[in-house]
Amino acid sequence: MSAIHDLPSPPIDEQELERMFSALVDGMLSQEERARLEELLMADAASRRRYLEFMQTEFLLASEVGFGEVTADADAIPEHCSLSDGGRRGGVRWPRFLGGAAAALLVALAAWAWRADGPNALFGERPAARITAVQDAEWEAAEQPVKGKALASGPVRLVRGSAQITFASGAVVAIHAPASVEVLGGNRMFLRSGRVTPYVPPSAKGFTVVSPSGEVVDFGTEFSIDVGDDGKTDVFVIDGEVAVAGGHGAASKPMHLTQGFASKFATTERQPEVTLRPLVIDHFDGDRGPLLRQDFEASHPSFVRGGKLWLPIDGRPNRRVPTVHTVLDHDFSSMAGRRSVISFKATLPNIGTAHFGRWVALVIDAGEGDPAHAAESDANLGVMLSPFWKVGMRVGGTGVVGLPSSAFRRSEEAVGPFQVVMTIDDTPAAHTEHGTAVVTTMVNGLEFIRNYQFQLPAQPRLSLHTHVRAREGGSGFAVIDDFSVSVAAD
Fold it and tell me: What is the pTM of this model?
């Protein structure tokens, strides 16, 4: 089976999706378009969520006027009535009528929403934020908040583990203990201390995190924010763009940060300052990007397609060494002695039935000889992603931690995409405190290792390699997107 067809399709045009949704409820969708829509919804989780949001809105509108009134007086209702003056977003229309199939669909959808969120879910009274995942979470509360329940109003403190909360807007926030937070609304929160990682889809654009020092407004899609006990606030943009403003008044002019940038601000500093700058960002939008690729298997080269780097995974039974290396040829020497962050997305093909031996890894080594395998002793650091065990980490050839696929999700599929963020601290302060450089690694919002000691070489070499056990057979591609390395600003 060709793995190209097993990977996610390119981003769907939201306007085209909305047009098809409108045509469906209006009874004007052709059989060919209906089949196309079903194909899109089956293949893409984001499209399914958008479909659900659209149909929930349609059901609400139909409920307000009554099914009987709409169908009985259909001829008197214009084909489309703009609701821009009534609070409905432009481009989304009233259905002209709700025929049997559409009405049955909306009734079924309403029943599903009732079971999932209670009787007020469709009518604006749903909780501002709900706990959607926990990982060894322990709260400072007489009654421990549990998965599936609304997060209590007022300040709450997570003293151990991790938790994920989903806001009514669709924003998903990972909380890393110890942290004190407070939900301020369906698209706004207060971080008193600790660290959170918000993931902001298009529906939640404008999601705001308030800290004692100021405010961070997200324009999509993911960032990390850390507030110290003294109120000083650090922000790192994993993907997308944020606006950072010191203080809480209009006098402070926001500073806009994009992927790879970080800043710090405090109560006494009205303007944020840049603390991390991108050393290299490759969106893989051309065959020759800032990261020059050197493939160590000429018969299985990497290639760029659709704004992504495709790495072959070859598991034919006659392969003696089922590994493909691709070196990201760049001068990474400025990482040494400084604080740096590596960030990228990875997606794996869902082929075959056994996934234990199929994975992709990012490896850091000293750049001598052939690129190191993640499990070899001359690999200073290796982070591995697999559909079966999801993520593992090795330092100096020794296993550090493995996170099972059942732990902490952000509604992603088992094959990804996995958003990996590695913070490496090789500063003198880190050496004084820990005796060596340390690494903190996070995947899809979950911090699963913090300040783990390892030796960062003076001339770091970064490489990617794929692996599949020969006995599994089959071939495919791992896909890498938006690879960036940032280092401390001068």
Answer: 0.72
